[in-house]
Amino acid sequence: MAELSGKKILVLVTNQGVEQDELKVPLEKLRADGAEVTVAAPETGEVKSLVGDWDRGETFPVDQTISSVNESEYDLLLLPGGTLNADALRLDQDAQKTAKAFASSGRPVAALCHGPWLLVETGLVDGKTLTSYPSVKTDIVNAGGNWVDQEVKVCPAKEWTLITSRNPGDLDAFVGAIEEQLTA
């Protein structure tokens, strides 16, 4: 277990459609490590997760709206997947602004499964090497990224670090890479 006391992580999701374990597992593990993790969504209330994009999952409280977040207070941006979540989040202007602010300031971004769609939409995958759910590969390549099929990929190119993984089966490696990044 890494010691992450004093580290602040911002998680961006929509209010419905995030893949349950891609939110739950990082939340639990990173909080257990001592990190302060804030879940931000477009609206207050709760996040309704899904399991496998079809079945209803658990609900999670929203700590803050995306529009009210002061992104400069956070050490890392986390983007869970879930097809519905990621597809809606990529069009959210506040989420786009937040992702761009993290990259431009050199702070790390971690995206899982379909989570890189927000980075595709903002042009942030250009010149980066990353992985994702296989169906996102063409979008990444068309946006100037180099797609690889591996459990976790850490790419420090372009003066900011991008951590990516393919699916919920990669969560241990994904969270481990986040822990390593925050303790380096």
User: How many distinct helices?
Assistant: 6
Distance between the ends: 14 Å
Under CATH, the topology is which?
Answer: Rossmann fold
Q: Which range does the strand content fall in?
A: 25-35%
Strand order of the main beta sheet, please?
Answer: 6-3-1-7-8-12-11
| Count of the domains | 1
CATH class wording: Alpha Beta
Superfamily at the CATH H level? Answer: Class I glutamine amidotransferase (GATase) domain
Q: Level of helix content? A: 25-40%
Multimeric status of the protein: single chain
H and E order: EEHEEEEEHHEHEHEEEH
Rg from C-alpha positions? 14 Å
Largest sheet: 7 strands, mixed
If classified by CATH, what would the architecture be? 3-Layer(aba) Sandwich
Going by helix content, strand content and strand pairing, the class is alpha/beta
Apparent shape? globular
Overall pLDDT metric: 97
Count all strands and give the number: 12
Low-pLDDT runs: none
Report on the structure:
By secondary structure, the protein is of the alpha/beta class. It has one domain (8-183): 3-Layer(aba) Sandwich (Rossmann fold), CATH 3.40.50.880. The chain is built from six helices and twelve strands. It has helices spanning 20-32, 83-89, 93-104, 117-121, 137-142, 171-183; strands spanning 8-12, 16-19, 36-41, 46-51, 55-61, 64-65, 76-79, 109-112, 129-130, 146-147, 152-155, 162-165. The strands form three sheets. The chain has a seven-stranded mixed β-sheet with strand order 6-3-1-7-8-12-11, sandwiched between helices. A three-stranded mixed β-sheet has the order 2-4-5. The mean pLDDT is 97.
